[in-house]
Amino acid sequence: MDVRVLLILGLLAFVSRSRAKTDSNECLPAKTCGECIQIRPQCVWCKDPDFKPSRCDHQDSLEKAGCTALGIENPRGTITIDKNKPVTNRKPDVAEKLKHDEITQIQPQKLTLNLRSGEAQKFTLKFKRAEDYPIDLYFLMDLSDSMLSNIENVKNLGTDLAKKMQGITSDLRVGFGSFLEKLVMPFILTTPKYLKNPCYPGNCTAPFTYKNVLSLTSDGQAFTREVSKQQTSGNLDSPEAGFDAIMQAAVCTKEIGWRNVTRLLVFSTDAGFHLAGDGKLGGIVRPNDGKCHLENNMYTMGHYFDYPTISQLADTLSENNIQTIFAVTQPFRGIYEQLSGLIPKSKVGILSASSSNVIDLIIDAYKYLSSEIILENSKLPKNVSISFVSHCKNGMSQKGENGRKCSNISIGDEVTFDVEIVTEGCPSNGKSETIKIKPLGFNEEVDVVLNFICECECHKDNIPNSPACTDGNGTLECGVCRCNEGRLGRLCECSRDEVQTEDLDANCRMGNSTDICSNNGECVCGTCECKIRDNPEERYSGKFCECDNFSCDRSDNKLCGGHGRCVCRKCICDANYTGSACECPLNDSTCMASNKQMCNGRGVCKCGVCTCTDPKFQGSTCEFCPTCPGVCAEHKDCVECRAFKTGVKKDTCEKECTYFNYIPVKKKEDLPQPFDLPNIPICKERDALDCWFYFTYAIRNDNVEVHLAEGLECPSGPDIIPIVAGVVAGIVLIGLALLLIWKLLMVLHDRREFDKFEKEKMNAKWDTVCPESLPSSLIHITPKDDPSLLFNKSLLASTQDFNPSRCDHQESLEWAGCTALGIENPRGTITIDKNKPVTKRKIDVEEKLMPEEINQIQPQKVTLNLRSGEAQQFMLTFKRTEDNLNAQPDSLSSEVILGNSRLPEGVSISFVTYCKNGVSEKGENGRKCSNISIGEEVKFDVEIMAKGCPSNGTSETIKIKPSGFTEEVEVILNFICECECHKDKIPNSPACTDGNGTLECGVCRCNEGRLGRLCECNRDEVQTEDLDANCRMGYKMDICSNNGECVCGTCECKKRDNPEERYRGKFCECDNFNCDRSNNKLCGGHGRCECRRCICDANYAGSACDCPLDTSTCMASNKQICNGRGVCVCGACACTDSKFQGSTCEICPTCPGVCAKHKDCVECRAFHTGDKKDTCETDCGYFSMKVVKKTDLSQPLYHPYITHCKERDANDRWFFFTYALNNDGNDEVHVAETEK
């Protein structure tokens, strides 16, 4: 074991030394001190004049090589703090008012770093959130018409927000801006009428892109006045020009009035946003330039520049230290949360329907944003890197990208960041660079000046034309010669014209070695001159002096063992010798066994000694095998007679069993083990008395040794009890396992049956998508290619106008009120035009028919009327005609394969064969039958289906024929593309608003220039032809939510009989009377109904405002809510501990002591005995009592909160009763009628 440890330690030392040497090699190629110090921080330079080894290396290597302490050049990086104003600490008991430029939140403010390549410089930044820090808040609002109700709640934002934020800051300034859309088509209508009033025939202000309504001010009344003046406007599409507005609000610092304080921008909208590239729709292709373009507080270049990109917006907000709060409605929450993930220091808040929660939203978002500190840095010079480690509250530290931030930072909290900056090489050609580090959303920053160490100090002390450089042919700098033009060499001793390369030392290095001339010579102008040894017999040789004749291995203290010669550090052995030191003779006579085999054929002879290839064998010629099968049995009798004087050899023991050394041991555990003596078998054998004994057999130093354990192991009889118990337990466990398996299989079966039932129930539902509307220009009955869809042709002019979708399933149309005569449902048909039967000859009549008289396929001509999606099927019969009844089928005529001519687009065909022996196939195999003999008949099912209306409704003809036969089937395809009612159209019908359309199948097909269901709209007055789409709240949704009519693309909501009840909203989707009710009152009489949702009064909650928030009814006598055992829900206690009951969770009928508590009263009430028999009427009337049979006492199964009691009465007899609370919360006692 000790030898192994020493070997491992030696190996580790060698690897460590090799690694150190390899690392140092990185330093060696440097030729100047400046190059050296840029390789690695561990590389230093020796400037001693007479230093000959490589000058660039690790310091310890140079010192070992003889470099003096003064000769070491090892400049290190430094950090200097230039400005270190402490963070502001205000005293809580001093009401001090500081200017914003007097507040410091980050320390230090300026540092200078001297950086050496590869050497990191670290410093610590401290950040503390200052108390009462000023805030500039700019409210940017979408003024599209849908935001009309929000203005009222925003106008008081200035004064209300200042009051609510008093605990955060006393210096709050607010401003207001609004935005709409770019003033180009297709974003707005550019006709003069709509440029003045885009809401015509309604009333609203002219459209605009962005305007700064009020610059930042501390006058809350001014904010209220200006916002109150604002009017909404309108545009065509839903997304708005919010990005344009954010960009202008961010870059127009002077116009908005931003200070160097906390800057908040609140972006409020109920719509999406346009991105860069959307401007192309309006012909705007110039990218946004990110500059301020406000004239008279209006954005004037919206028509010239495209919308900003998201990355452009994020960079601009970050550069201007603006934190963004997106106050948006619920439908757009997802898209703005994705946008917030791309913009640093931004937060999304959900705006209520009328912006009533905007102030709370802003305060919550500000607290969230200001509580997170994120450090960012300006662009770094090339090859310079920076990393952060944060030390936040509660001792939490983070690295990587998370090392830049700390969260949940309250006002007055202090956190620190460790900053590490490192450079590789010499960036910027050694010129100084300045980077900035700042917390996102804050105006303060840290300046970090970076100076790069690119040269050593000794560079300044150079000596031009120094005599040390061979006759003044170079400049002596840092101990080395920098040669003049035309000179080369370490001392400038070589002329450039005399050598092939400028790197002379490279010619003197062998391969990738770092040693010059293998450290055995000197490099003279690129050629090695080897050293001369004191012993003239010992010589260096080779191009790089890499060889010698004296460093070979030795044996018996002789070079190459005296049996060879040393050539280039390697022994060349004489005949009959081998090995690295020629120490191994090739004579193998010592390995020859008695059977004349080398090592008994079980090994190889190496240097005159057998090495056994099979590890089981031992001995000088691999003759012994102590672990081979039969070793134990072979020696068992001798071991038994020697040890115990028993066995078959007890009488001949002394003669036959003396060939081994017998060594007794006490126990079998004391026998030699395989790890003590390799290849040793441990034998276990029975003696004459059937007892076990143990021994080992081994060969040591050519002697046989047997170790034997003296103790015997004799068998004992079986223990019956454990065996019987084990069998019984096994039977029980197997029975239980079988029961569990049966139960599991039943559960799986039931679950599978239930899933099957659920699936069939789901499949029973309609699964076909009907069109949401039927445009007047499309009367085809092929929507979604579903033949089960029908069309209703009820006349619009009739008294029973049909308003739902006219195209639907028949039962849906009938349920919606369509008459039976109004249903249009043409179906496909099949007509057989030519059906000549296949030829059948009589066997006993020899008849000769002409070819044209023979018919092998039937029918010959079919006409199909095809409706889209509805398959038509017919059968073809084929029979091979008899000509020679004894003829055998051949490989060609015995196979019938049907082919068809080219199909029209949208038409498909499929076949199913019915061949001999009941064989039926589909797909491509459905076209053919094989092994058809003469006279045999086969059939084919043919299915043809059309999708849509192929060939524009023109009839097509296709042909089906068996390959190799002349007969064919002609199939005429007619496509059903119109309904029958199409023929009964009425041009210029009065039903179509003054004859402005043709009445066709119950709908109006409008004349040129007219639109609408009844052609009531002028095309010039609307923006889209699909008017109903403008009246739907979403895809497939009802027109005007079924609460109004769509008039030229605008919903006109129904009026209710009750004037207090109203529908409203762009799609009539809201009303004020369909909210939940409580006590038959709308919103329980404690709130108002807005858009089918109750807005509850203070102190009420719930969908019907039916839940009072007052907890006085839940207050127990100990002044605790529900006695601390429950929660107050809608004014009633819900006990969290199921044992407790009562109005304030005060009663526990099942708690210990219940029986003893009520025992005396139950005894006096039931039996008129006991301690309370005299005061029973006054003390024991608090419960209702019922006398029952004992078997009728309530059980916990039927009453979960019941206590069963068993008590002794005054006569020492047992009686039984139960105690519980009934459904009314009153005490109830049941007593067993008989005493025990």
Automatic annotation (TrEMBL):
The chain crosses the membrane at residues 720-742. GO terms for biological process: cell adhesion mediated by integrin; cell migration; cell-cell adhesion; integrin-mediated signaling pathway. Keywords: Calcium, Cell adhesion, Cell membrane, Disulfide bond, EGF-like domain, Glycoprotein, Integrin, Magnesium, Membrane, Metal-binding, Receptor, Repeat, Signal, Transmembrane, Transmembrane helix. One of its GO terms (molecular function) is metal ion binding. Residues 632-719, 1155-1235 form the Integrin beta subunit tail domain. Residues 32-456 form the Integrin beta subunit VWA domain. It is a single-pass type I membrane protein. This is Integrin beta. Residues 743-781 form the Integrin beta subunit cytoplasmic domain. It is found in: Cell membrane.
